[in-house]
Amino acid sequence: MRGLAGFGLGTVLALCVGVTAVAPAAAQGSYSPYDESATAALARYVRTLASDPKDFEALIGAGKAALALGDAQAAAGFFARADDVDPGSPLPQAGMGAVAVANGDPRSALPYFRRAQQLGASVASFACDRGLAYDLMGQQAQAQADYRLALSGADGEEARRRLALSLAISGDRAGAIDMLAPLSAKGDPGTARVRAFVLALTGDSGSALSAINAAMPGASASVAPFVQRLPALSAAQKAAAVNLGIFPDSGGTAYSYAVPAGASGTLASASSDRLAGVDALLRGTPAPAPQPVPQQSTPPAWRPPAVQVAYAPQPARSNVQRTEASAPKLWLQLGSGNDVDALSARFQRLKAINPDLFDGIKPYVSRSADGARLLVGPFRGRSDAAIFADDLRTVGVEPMQWTNSQADRIAPLPGE
To answer: What contacts 24+ positions apart, CB below 8 Å, involve 289-294?
Structure first.
């Protein structure tokens, strides 16, 4: 398996057309070259949290700054702590949705955005990130509707860039170029990158390579394999490639090496100790010493970090029928009985009647001597479980909170 780095594209694209692991719009909209940088903002928020670990605004600000720096794992930690401080605020939920999008997991993002709306957030406030989730699912019409909602808000410029890419994925080259016109007129530095991708997505690889060559003479030969393969990808794959740097390869999905916007041309892998250092700081204990970051001329394939949050899909198992003892976690029980097939049929009926509610929700079964339980989760905390339980009650399902014991054996529901 190889990513774009196998073509030498990670460095070339980062330098000449600015391909990045896209930070969610809420994070991108908070910083600019003319204002405080994301790095400075994160440092400022962390200093605040060192004095008051429960400062809600600092936790939200730190989460957004971490996302802008491409560190979704650290952002998830900040948003989770913010949710513990104020479980009634929609901001942590919207932030968790943005984290899932940044990790290339759109189906896990949608329940978070839905909960943010239920807690009072306007759709426009997270529409740019939800639009990208829909793009990553190959649902371009829904994505474009969300981007248009966000055009007049704080994320307007990023929404315009993403809308242009989405229109190009749909084959509307003229509409995509027109969408970029206001940004081009004001000299927006990201427009050249997006325009090159628009040309590539709509099959004009020659013009796309010329645009890249204009930015970095001689680079087109290295970028050509990426540009020429774009038109053949599925809509969802195109969205992942141009927005997140995730590119499919034979045998699975490969990840291009990508750097946050504004990073230097010399690429380096991010330290894996950032979240550990943040946790140590918020606990009031010394942070681990930072590890040196090696410089690499050919960066390794980048993979999104695992994020332990509510509704996040569990790691794939080689045998989904296999059960195993589980550490205690919080779940919602949707049914019980001795017949696992009947429980599976019950979940299918619920999902068929309420597809939006169960979109991205994976069912599990717990087996014990007294029978089986149909479960969804696990949930990060009781507030998340309570919110989804309220959703279920609106469609006539009365769930029960349940915490497994160490002896309970839990596995994905067969057939799901």
So the answer is: 293/268, 293/269, 294/268, 294/269
Q: How far apart are CA 214 and CA 196, in angstroms?
A: 11
Q: Is there a contact between 2 and 218 (Cβ–Cβ < 8 Å)?
A: no
Q: Is 245 helix (H, G, I), strand (E, B) or coil?
A: coil
Containing H/E element for 355?
Answer: none
Query: What values do phi and psi take at 298, rounded to 5?
Result: -120, 95
Where would I find the H helices in 245-339? 274-283
pTM equals: 0.61
Quote the DSSP letter at residue 378.
E
pLDDT at 31: 52
| H or E element in which residue 293 lies | none
Strand arrangement, sheet containing 409-412: 324-325, 409-412, 363-368, 371-379, 330-337, 400-403
Three-class secondary structure of residue 248 per DSSP? strand
Residues of the chain with pLDDT under 50: 1-22, 28-30, 32-34, 250-279, 281-325
Give the N- to C-terminal CA distance of the chain in Å, as an integer.
27
Angle at 32 between CA 31 and CA 34, to 5 degrees: 130
User: What are the tens digits of pLDDT across the range 178-215?
Assistant: 999 999 888 887 788 899 999 999 999 889 888 888 76
Inter-residue long-range contacts of 129-132, CB under 8 Å, 24+ positions, other chains counted: 129/24, 129/25, 129/26, 129/94, 129/97, 129/98, 129/101, 130/97, 130/101, 131/159, 131/162, 131/163, 131/166, 132/22, 132/24, 132/25, 132/101, 132/106, 132/162, 132/239, 132/243
- Gyration radius from the chain CA atoms: 22
Q: What is the 3-state secondary structure (H, E, C) of 53-77?
A: CCCHHHHHHHHHHHHHCCCHHHHHH
**Spatial CB neighbours of 10, under 8 Å, sequence gap ≥ 6:** 3, 4, 256, 257, 258, 267, 298, 299
**How far is Cα 75 from Cα 227, in angstroms, rounded to an integer?**
31
The answer to whether 165 and 194 have CB atoms below 8 angstroms apart is yes
- Among residues 376, 381, 371, the alpha carbon closest in space to that of 392 is found at 376
Domains and CATH numbers, the chain: 4-255 (1.25.40.10), 324-412 (3.30.70.1070)
